[in-house]
Every structure is written in structure tokens, then in C-alpha cells.
Amino acid sequence: MTLPSADTIRRAQTAGAQMASFETPFVFNCWYVAALASELKNELLERMILGRRLVLYRTSDGVPVALDDRCAHRSFPLSKSKLVDDTIVCGYHGFRYDRTGDCVEVPSLTKCPATIGVRAYPMVERGPVVWIWMGAAEEADPSTIPPLSWMESSEWTLNIGYLDLPASYIGLHENLLDLTHIEFLHADTLGAGAPGYSMAPYNTEIGEGVFALSRTVEPASIPGPFAGPMAFGDITTGGRSIRSEFVTPALHQLVARYYDTAEPAEQRRICFISTAHLPTPRDHVSTHYFIVNGRNFALGDAEVTEDLHRGMFEAFAEDVWGLGNVQSVLSATPAEELYEISVKSDTAAVAMRRHIRNLALAEAAERAA
Ligand code: FES
Ligand SMILES: [Fe+2]
Q1: Which of 85, 91, 191, 239 has the fewest beta carbons under 10 Å from its own?
Q2: Which ligand is nearest to the CA of 171?
Q3: CB–CB of 165/172 below 8 Å?
Q4: Count of structural domains, the chain
Q5: Is residue 21 assigned to a domain?
Q6: Could you read off the pLDDT of 33-69 as tens digits, one per residue?
């Protein structure tokens, strides 16, 4: 039996202490996806984001609204109240709140005091998603929402989904910067037909807030979920090229290219799949996992959309299963016993986790000041 030496454990724990973990404070000054645009209707929706319970709705003129889900009077949840003419009438004693969170009516008083209200959060709708700013209101700048123009372009066909991830968003970002798991966790889906994938050469980019990994594997087969929709069939001369980039705590962008190396390079048909992985922490051990996929082939073909969606979400469900299991082990391990040993292929993920921790701690210090 070979157990790590006390020195190895100490070094792993020292390195781990410099990285974001599931217990690290959240990064609030960041735009997160609060909901899919299709989820927001003229009805009340309860949603926990970064540990805060919110009520979301869309006004009858289409404006998304997010308020704290706690009546200022006796803490009745506004999400369990009534939406009347785009205002929320509390289900307990009838205080009425408008879309800005101001209380505009107290039924037991003839005049509503101007000092009652609940916090409203800035929201911005962009294509299929609605972003929310949970940080200091004066720092909410919509120009810092990551530009994902392909999500709103007719040159891409989208398929969109949501997964309930029973794990920290930190683990998801790490998973997305780690292509070595594809051969194992996705052995029957994305990893099929690419033996030795985890040994294929890769390129790491680490810069100021930039963490990316890319890998090209040739020749390989095209993964099962894609081969049919991309009309490549069961070729063994395929090429797979994937670039994965951490953009913000709320966005991890993957761009995958699939092609047939038997076709001359200049005439090669390249199928792109662009995926925005959009994790929004519900709390420290669970995450709203929004996913938007775009493709540049078979545009508008509903059957392809359905096939691709089924195949991709089968693979994403494997990540959710894997990360959920990791979280349950992490949550059950006493802090003083916990250590995780990193290897060379973890370099980008380690740097990214250090970056998130630095962001979170700098913000926490600012809040405390
Ligand atoms: S708790 Fe909402 S009005 Fe009393
Ligand atoms: Fe994965």
C-alpha cells in the first residue's frame, strides 16, 4: 500500500489552500445567468442565487424583474404571493411592491410610507438567457456581460438546456478545463472512438484572468452523439479539436471543431459546436447549470437539433453525476484530512481556481472594509 507521505500531503494541502474550493465566498461582482429567457413569464418564480433567495418575473411589457424574496414586513416569501398588474401583493398582509422593489401600498395605512422596500437586482436579457448582477448595484455595467453574439445570430442554430448540478460551480469549471476525463467519465459518449485521448498533446494558455486548454486529436472517429447529425458517419479519419476557456465565474466557453482529415484541407467541411456553459451557484454545494449550444451546420433542422440535444445532454448528465459524487465525498471529508494531488494536466485548472479565490477574497475584503 502506497500512501502519500506526510510531506506530500502537506504540500497538497498548502496548494489547495491557495485555490477556490466549494467553501470559498462567492464572487458577487459578476453577471450570472438568472434564468433562461423562456422561463421568465408574467408569473412568480422562486430562485436561489449565490445563497440569496429571489423572486423573478417578467412584467406584462416584457421586462425581467428580480427582487429579494422576503417581504419587508414579516418575511413572507414574495414568490408565494400574488402578481397583480406587474406588482407583487404580499400573501400575508397585502403590502404591495412594484418592479423596482418599492412598497407602494400598505392596506392598513391610508398613506404608504416611502421608506419600505425590498432589494431589486439589475437584469439584462440577451438572446436565450437573462443575466443578473448580484454585486454592488453601482458597479453593474451591462457592457461587461460577455459578448456571446453567436447566441443571437441566424448563422447558428441553438439547443438550450438546464441541469440541476448537486455540486459546487468550482468543480464544474475545473471539469471543463480538464479534457483528460473525456476518455473515462464519458467512455460511452464523447470519449468513444478516441482511445488514448487523455495522452494526446494539448496546449495551455494562462494569462491575466485567461485560462484555456486546447487539444486536437487526429485521426479519430467522430463521437457518437455528433457523427449522425454532422453526416460524417463512422469514419476513422476524423479530427476533433476542442478549445475550452474560463471566461468569468459565470461562463465557460467551449468551441469544438469536427472534420474529416481525408478531405483536402482547403475544401474541408468543418462542423463547429460552440457551447456556453453557464454555472450559477445556488449555494456552495449546488449549481444552476444553464447550457447553450450553437452549431453552424444543419441550420434549422429540428430533427438534428433533437438528436444533438439528446446526445450532448447525455454526456453533460455524466458530468453532473460525476461532480455530484465528488461533492458528496468532499462534503463528508473533514477539512484537516482533505488533500487533492494535482498533476501536470491540472495546471490550467489550478491557476483558474487560484484566480477565483483571489477575486472572491478581494471582494470579501472590500465588503468588510
Ligand atoms: S409579511 Fe408581507 S405584508 Fe406582512
Ligand atoms: Fe465532461
Answers
A1: 85
A2: 2
A3: yes
A4: 2
A5: no
A6: 999 999 999 999 999 999 999 999 999 999 999 999 9
